[in-house]
Amino acid sequence: MKTLLSLLVLMIVPVLASAQISVGKSLPKVDLSGDSGGRLNGTLWSSSEISGKVFTMMYVDPDEKDVNEAVEQALKKENFPRDKYASIAMINMDATWKPNAVIKMILDGKQKDFPHTIYVMDKDKVLVRKWGLADDNYHVITFDKTGKVIFEKAGKLSDSDIKKLIAVIKENL
User: In CATH, what is the architecture of 2-172?
Assistant: First the structure.
């Protein structure tokens, strides 16, 4: 009986988690610091920072980092005004076999190359559990100025997905 109950919980929890994120809704506040992650410099990152601008967050398994290169290039090409738009690269550190120290070293280099992007480490899949983001994948989420989700999709975005993402950002700037 206990095994059956455990199996049911394992089947239901992912369904509930994936149902947490929906367009038009705000997500629960999440803080990452210490063992759970945070900014590259070791300071706290809080989802309460997602306000006042349109933010696009890329929640990325390091093993899937190239999946949405086209999205990254399309956003870069748009050159959205920095006073109205920001980007967050959230790395799912627990989704890879690669050592955290190696990933952090790579991210430190990327932070220098892209100083306007906020780089954050999720060392314990906190956003997978609390927001229902895709694990072992590449998840794109865009928030309006009030922190409500205005776009989200996990996996490789199609050309039409990219056009929709760009349009939604422009509408909300």
Answer: 3-Layer(aba) Sandwich (3.40)
CA distance 163 to 168: 9
Q: Examine the pLDDT at 34 and tell me if it is beyond 60.
A: yes
The torsion angles phi and psi of 21, rounded to 5 degrees, stand at: -95, 125
User: pTM here?
Assistant: 0.86
DSSP string over the chain: -HHHHHHHHHHHHHHHHHTS--TT-BPPP-EE-GGGEEETTS--EEGGG--SSEEEEEEE-GGGTTTTHHHHHHHHHHT--TTTEEEEEEEEGGGSSS-HHHHHHHHHHHHHH-TTEEEEEETT-HHHHHH-PPTTSEEEEEE-TTSBEEEEEESPPPHHHHHHHHHHHHHH-
User: Rounded to whole angstroms, how far apart are CA atoms 60 and 81?
Assistant: 24
List the chain domain ranges: 2-172
CA-CA distance, 104 to 107, in Å (whole number)?
5
d(CA 80, CA 87): 10
Q: Which has more pLDDT, 169 or 4?
A: 169
